[in-house]
């Protein structure tokens, strides 16, 4: 399907996790171990914040991530305290820049791995539910971007987790009316620069893979000579579709039907329960 990662912590070079790690996101674009597809070469995207209240920067391309020389230069140059990166494996929609993640609206970014089952059959009904004031911001044709603007419609900017629950519930209710089962499979990332909100959920309770880093303070005690761990700081936090390094005790799987909210050193885990309209 797709692979993505998100980071918050001390400002670090994007190259550190995109290229230097043993099973980096670039490696996953060619050799995914846990994804629905081994190769994720239908474009990629980066989004990052230099300061929490700024509009995020973004770079997207239809090139395979492993074959874009500009990506390597950019990743080496940019240092950021919060960023997301995504490599795409297309499903229903074409390979074009506007279909590459992350999607952006004002301060918010959104990335997704998974799918809405039979999205073309429900597309018109789902798009008509998007707030008319936001509808013209749609640029592409993916189910992922539709999910983002549905979440915005349901209050992502005000209360992110309930908005995502309403988005998922609306999709499932729409699918039920069309006789589509299961409806939804997703791991999603959303951020406004001050927080990361992530969800692992699927209608059949068999979601795409998602892992989070364990305590970096604990990891510094276990691996005091590892410069990668020292650089990120004790409050750093990573979310990854697949572990990027093989350090024991470095990763834990995000449980099914779980939402995570990360605000600096504060990390909250919640049950994720879709709310039907």
TrEMBL record:
<dbReference type="InterPro" id="IPR029055">
    <property type="entry name" value="Ntn_hydrolases_N"/>
</dbReference>
<protein>
    <submittedName>
        <fullName>Glutamine amidotransferase</fullName>
        <ecNumber>3.5.1.118</ecNumber>
    </submittedName>
</protein>
<dbReference type="GO" id="GO:0016787">
    <property type="term" value="F:hydrolase activity"/>
</dbReference>
<dbReference type="Pfam" id="PF13230">
    <property type="entry name" value="GATase_4"/>
</dbReference>
<dbReference type="InterPro" id="IPR052373">
    <property type="entry name" value="Gamma-glu_amide_hydrolase"/>
</dbReference>
<dbReference type="GO" id="GO:0016740">
    <property type="term" value="F:transferase activity"/>
</dbReference>
<keyword id="KW-0378">Hydrolase</keyword>
<feature type="domain" description="Glutamine amidotransferase type-2">
    <location>
        <begin position="2"/>
        <end position="277"/>
    </location>
</feature>
<keyword id="KW-0808">Transferase</keyword>
<keyword id="KW-0315">Glutamine amidotransferase</keyword>
<dbReference type="InterPro" id="IPR026869">
    <property type="entry name" value="EgtC-like"/>
</dbReference>
<dbReference type="InterPro" id="IPR017932">
    <property type="entry name" value="GATase_2_dom"/>
</dbReference>
């Amino acid at each position: 399907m797709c692979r993505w990662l998100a980071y918050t912590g001390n400002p670090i070079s994007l190259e550190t996790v995109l290229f230097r790690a043993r099973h980096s996101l670039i490696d996953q674009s060619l050799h995914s171990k846990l994804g629905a597809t081994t190769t994720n070469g239908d474009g990629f995207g980066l989004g990052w914040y230099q300061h929490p209240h700024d509009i995020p920067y973004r770079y997207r391309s239809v090139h395979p991530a492993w074959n874009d020389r500009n990506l390597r230069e950019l990743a080496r140059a940019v240092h950021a305290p919060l960023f997301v990166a995504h490599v795409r494996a297309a499903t229903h929609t074409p390979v074009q820049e506007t279909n590459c993640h992350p999607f952006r609206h004002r301060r918010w970014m959104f990335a997704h791995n998974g799918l809405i089952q039979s999205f073309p059959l429900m597309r018109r009904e789902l798009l008509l539910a998007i707030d008319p004031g936001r509808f013209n911001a749609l640029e592409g044709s993916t189910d992922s971007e539709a999910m983002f603007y549905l979440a915005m419609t349901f209050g992502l900017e005000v209360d992110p987790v309930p908005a995502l629950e309403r988005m998922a519930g609306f999709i499932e209710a729409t699918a039920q009316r069309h006789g589509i089962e299961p409806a939804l499979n997703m791991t999603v990332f959303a951020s406004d620069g001050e927080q990361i909100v992530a969800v692992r959920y699927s209608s059949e309770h068999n979601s795409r893979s998602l892992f989070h880093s364990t305590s970096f303070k604990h990891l510094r005690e276990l691996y005091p000579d590892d410069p990668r761990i020292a650089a990120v700081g004790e409050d750093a936090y990573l979310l990854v579709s697949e572990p990027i390094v093989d350090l024991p005790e470095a990763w834990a799987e995000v449980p099914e039907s779980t939402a995570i909210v990360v605000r600096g050193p504060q990390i909250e885990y919640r049950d994720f329960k879709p709310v039907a309209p």
